Structures
1.
Amino acid sequence: MGLDALTDTTVASAVGNSMFADLVSVAGHIYKHGVADPKNGSNQPFGAMPTISLHADEFNELIGDEFVPLLNKAGGAGFQVTAYTQTWSDVEARIGNRAKAGQVAGNFNTMIMLRVKELATAEMLTDQLPKVEVFTLMSVSGVDDSSDPTSGVDFKSRNEDRISVSELPMLTAAELVALPKGQAFAMLEGGQLWKLRMPLPDAKNDPVMPESLTAIANEMERTYITNDHWYRVPEIWWHGVSDVGVPVSRASSDG
């Protein structure tokens, strides 16, 4: 669902919040009554709970009061919510309440964080990690000269290895800020820290890689079909579409 928040934030927010409100209503119905079997018209719960994956990109533009119960309680109805944002301050600024923003953050079980430039956002991950004991080995060498001319010992030397234990954070916010492109840290299942490295696209030895962005745009323009007027010609849209997605009425005689 494209809301075009960049062009019109007000309309995108209103439509997005309405969508989330509908999803909360559907989640409540599934949670209370289950999923009815459509084959026999039974009202009894049927089968396993469905899995509904909701991906919200730039969700700070859409989040509102409707989003909080969707995170709190919709998991019991099979909803899996994945949210994407640049910084957590965007979410706090959108909600206008830091406590409610913390309530939203507390309902996400998995957190994947790429390179961020805001320390407060990086600390959302680092503050959840325990401190670790680090052993430090220190080598000490020393020499003492003898000032007694009657002594047969001219100097004394010593070498020591000292081991000390100190507590340090497992991961710092500065390390998240300095992450290379394509790498990330992930907090899985609430407490397992993983280091991720994602392969980046490369045009080397790839026969299906387009020559340029212009070629991609031309191919998209060639195959693009709008359904703005689907309600006017339903017989063409629903019954006259060929295998390649082009209306039969517009196809040439040679196919």
2.
Amino acid sequence: MTSLLLDPAAAPFIAAAVGLCVGSFLNVVIHRLPKMLEQGWQDECAGFRGETPPERPRYNIMVPRSGCPACGHGITALENIPVLSWLALRGKCSACGTAISARYPLVEILGGALAACAVWRFGPSWEALAACGLLWALLALTFIDFDTQLLPDDITLPLLWAGLGVNLFGVFVPLRDAVIGAMAGYLALWVVYWLFKLIRGKEGMGYGDFKLLAALGAWLGWQMLPLIVLMSSVVGAVIGITLVVFKGRDHNIPLAFGPYLAIAGAIALFFGRTLMRTFFPS
């Protein structure tokens, strides 16, 4: 089994299978974590008002068991096989026939594809395992931010510390570059935030964006920050213009910036050094 895991030809396929299962778990995180945070905020507000928080059924990442939001049908093990179950059910609940969003298999496929790409890029190594962790966290943050315009501290802060921990051993960059990257990543967007607020009188981004860029700096080093900011701005502009032109989206409605940072961070992980030589030749 060990030789199979270390086989460069087989490892990406094994990583893809694991990534599909992780993607299934990420669907739960994407759906439940914002609701858990909202309940926590409501309870805190009730406490500030001197009220007793309302009694609620236990609700977290593990409880209750996943079910159909329309009829409450509990998802069985056979109905929870990544991608295949959705295809077998033809994208519908087996009990009531309500449509199941195609985003669920999409997240699973992305989880598997990113893991396979990480192992293909870095080989069957600790570096690839760390890269998978980073990519899966970015995947969860992307969809949470799209849905809620929130980048939860529950993910961004552990991701930042994980980047520093990984680079304590110089996995991606030396620790010094990682520490400077975390500091510079946070301060760069913090400065942009306050300049925009002073000039326009309103907020242009959230504090979660600062923390996400700090986390990317901790993982990839301060040298990658200009490239990440440049690519995220380009990706955001392209997607934003596309939504306005083809979807009729009101340009005054704010767009989440976190997904573009996450996409840029993933690109920098795989192709950063090549792109740095192209766009920022020394």
3.
Amino acid sequence: MPMNILEVQDVSIRYNGTLALDKINFSVEQGDLLGIVGPNGAGKTTLFRAILGLQNYQGKIKLFGYEGNQYTQLLPMVGYVPQKVNFEPNFPATVSDVLSMGMLPEKELVRITRLLQDQGCYWNRICKPSSKYTEKINEALKIVGLESFKDRRIGEISGGEQQRAFIAKALVNEPLLLILDEPVTGVDVEVQNRFYALLRRINKENKITIVWASHDLSAISQLANKVACINRNLFFHGEKNEFFTNRDLLKTYAESAMQLHMHDHDM
């Protein structure tokens, strides 16, 4: 049986008295590619912030079976790619510089590996010494097809290339879990298709578990093996075929998206 990489139990979050998430429950197994769908404002980013330790919440979240201080210590094994981030053309950092910002010391990786092994999760990566940081950066850039861009300024490359650079930054520590928050918003179809192919590859070939928020139901249906549907409440979590063959679920998703859009418009 695959182990649970992530467990979210009765998680609720309030902003100034307003309920943003209400008792969310789901788990993510090792090897999953979980597609999270829901309208804008449904709480997807808020949920990700809680998982990443950036947001207070009620309830319980476990990472590789750990809570509390040990949970925090394992957060470097979670790669995160936010929605599109733009850099000024003259921003004084190369693509390699951006990736190096996410690098962890060798001792930290060794300690994290021991924690994982204590839970029966044998990390199949190699903890390379700091002298080989450049090699790890090159490997991450190769995965996303940006080997030739490593010395380019991050602000000079296109939006789609910047997104791939951020995926490489998230991959540079060889994480076991990758969280993607609508990472292809605002990019063209060709870039999206390349991203979807990359997503499939790193899930299957690099054995990285993925949690991916997207409005693209077609892409979710092709790539994900499981779906979670959130609109402040979680009203579905399960196999993708169950979601996409259930007309009532799809209708509920469409109606919740429309209602939230109308509410936001009224405000």
